[in-house]
Task: structure prediction
Amino acid sequence: MDTKKLLEDAEVDAIVIYNGNNEDLNFYYFTRLLDGGIFEGSYAVVTEEGVKVITSILEEQSAKKGNNEVYIFNTSSERDELLKKSLKGMNTIGVNYDVLSLSDFNKIKKVVGEANFKDVSGKIQEWRMIKDEQEISMIKEAAKIASEVAEVMPDFMKEGIREYELAARLGYEMFKRGAEDFAFTTIMAFGENSAEPHYLSGARKLKKGDFVLMDFGARYHRYNSDMTRTFVFGKASEEQKEIYYTVLEAQKLGISMIKSGVNGKDVDIKVKELIDSTKYRGRMIHSTGHGLGLAVHDHVGLSSQRDLILKRGMVVTVEPGIYVPGFGGVRIEDDVLVKDDGHEVLTFAPKDELIEV
Ligand code: GLY
Ligand code: MN
Result:
């Protein structure tokens, strides 16, 4: 990471990220401490010479796995002293307004004393959108784990199994394949529950003819995948097939448009146009996709509400859906890496035929 270049771009002398009252994922972005540690109450100080980590003795071993200068404190006054020292002579200090709590900001100002503070949240967001090789390899592995799990999940669908039981199995299958955590709480929706896009899971028992919608992701060395597959338990009705294949066509159209230079807004518009040209007009009630990375919703992705010119190295989800309240819904979601001349789909579980289990 060329910290000198980043600081020049943000027009600051240093950036201070505090993993304080609010967890700031930028701590991991800058330090690349991707291999264990929680780092509560720790600072990452980005300077021209590199990144300094100020952390407690509790995290010493985890911190030393990285390539940063590490400073250990035992007490909060030692922490304050270390921060003050690391920012000596710096006039303009960048902070992340998006995450830093007001009380933490006031604490930093008190410790540092005379300095100008500048909001660099927009710049950090810009940098984070373009993933480097290391980040892409983590996301790829997270996507691989999720894809393999999606493939085996039909084996565990049995009449009468409850949503939370199947969600538990899904978690087990992910951890067994090397996930360090869930990317987010799994959505496991049977039947009519699949019409609720952000349903979680409950005691609903699986019965013949149900949609089974699972939206889940693996976290691997702090980077996430996010995928959705929808199945039918038993034989699919004509209506279920129609919904499924409409979503599939929309999803394939969305993916086919992804390449550097395209506006994410246009992808969402085209995908929705397709769905709105069918009898499911108005039934896609969210945007087509979002950025993916250290956060599951890493940045704006494919939304008619916002311009986002796609660039090489971005990773976005493509996840159209159709939701019919009281009946059910279908969503199909893949993770897609933007390339100069096209894209690479990172998730790979089958989807071309509606799977009847
Ligand atoms: N995986 C849930 C969502 O993207 O909103
Ligand atoms: Mn998603």
Remarks:
- Residues 196 and 219 are 24 Å apart (CA to CA).
